[in-house]
Records
---
Amino acid sequence: MFRIILPQCITRMLPPWMNLYALLITATPLASIVGVEEALARTQAAVQSEAQASFLIPMYATLLVMFFLYTYPISRISNALERRFRTV
C-alpha cells in the first residue's frame, strides 16, 4: 500500500487539493482577512479616504506583495510535493 497505492493517490490528488485550498482562501467568509475581495475593497477605501492619487500605486503594490508572500510558498511546497511523489 505504501509503495504502490499511496504514491499514486498523492500524485493524482495533490493538484486538486491545492486548487481547493486556493478557493477556500479566496471565497470563504472565514478567510476574509486574506480574501482577495476583502483586501481589494479595503485598499480602495483607504485610497479614496485619502483623496490623493499618490497613494494609489504604493497601496496596490503593498497588496500585491502581501498576496505574493502568501501564495508563493504554497506554490513552491505544492511543486516540491508533486516532484517528491511523482511516479516514474
---
Amino acid sequence: MSLRAEAPPAAQVRRFGRAERWVHRLTAALMGVCVVTAAVLYLPELAELVGRRELVVRIHEWAGLALPVPVLAGLVSRAFRSDLRFLNRFGPHDRLWLRAALRRDKRASARPAGKFNAGQKIYAAWIAGATLVMLGTGLIMWFTHLTPLMWRTSATFVHDWLALTIGIVLAGHIGMALADPEARRGLRTGSVSREWADREHPLWRP
C-alpha cells in the first residue's frame, strides 16, 4: 500500500497514532472492569445478582494491578511520549481556557488550546494521580500482613471514597465524549477534520 493511500484526506489531520489509540482503549477497558467490579462489590443489589464474590474480588484486584501497564508500554512510542509532554505543559492560554470555561463562555476565540485543552490536561493529571493512589491503597488492602491495622483502615477509607469520586469524574468524561463525535472519531480512527481542529484547538499545529 502506498503512503498516499494511507494518508488521511486533505480535509483531515492526523491527531493520534496507533500507540496512543491502543493505550487509551486498553486503559479504558481496565478502568471499566475496575469500576464495574467495584460496583458489584459495594452495591448489595448487584452483589446478589452476580454472586461469586471471591471471583469478582480477584478480577478487580488484577485489573487494578494491570491499570498502569498500557501507559508504561506506550512509553516505547515517541508519539505517545510527545503527547505526554503536551499534557504536562500548562501555559497562559490554558488559564484563559479555564476562565472561559468557568464563565461558560463557549466562543472558540475565548478558549485557545493546543493539541490538548486545559480541561483535558487537568483530567489527565488527576486521573493519573488517582490511579496511583488507588493502586497504592489497593496493595495495602490486598497484602494485609505487610502493614499495621491503622494503615489498612486508612487505605480502605481513601480507596472507597476515591473510587466513588473516580466514578463521578469518569461519568462526566464519558458524557463530554458523547457530546463530541469528532473527538471520539479521532480516538477511533486517529484523524479529525481540519475544521474541528481549527475550531477546538486553534493553537495546535499538526
